[in-house]
Design goal:
By secondary structure, this protein is mainly α. The protein has one domain. Helix content is 65%, strand content 0%. The chain has four helices and no strands. Helix 2 packs antiparallel against helix 3. The radius of gyration is 15 Å and the shape is globular. The relative contact order is 0.11. Keywords: Disulfide bond, Mitochondrion. It is found in: Mitochondrion intermembrane space. It comes from Drosophila navojoa. InterPro entries: COX23 (IPR051040), COX6B-like (IPR048280), Cys_alpha_HP_mot_SF (IPR009069). It holds the Pfam family COX6B.
Length: 84
Amino acid sequence: MPRNLNAERDNPCLKEQELSFKCLNKNNFDRDKCEVYFANYNNCKEFWNKVRSDRRAQGIVPYLPPIEERAEIKAEYMKSKPKL
């Protein structure tokens, strides 16, 4: 459980962040062994920053969606994401 009670509300990438820290601790802070975790965290931050920016531009408040709406927003994005 995070120390900051609002951490999950304020940081939609809290899980990815914690996994990155856990990997670093497990691997004696060898960043090379945790690149996948860092990439996942960075992708998460980019996604939610884009969501925040889009909501701000559309005048939707709060800019960062509430926790209970995030899974739906991610699922909607995954459906509309172009296939490679």
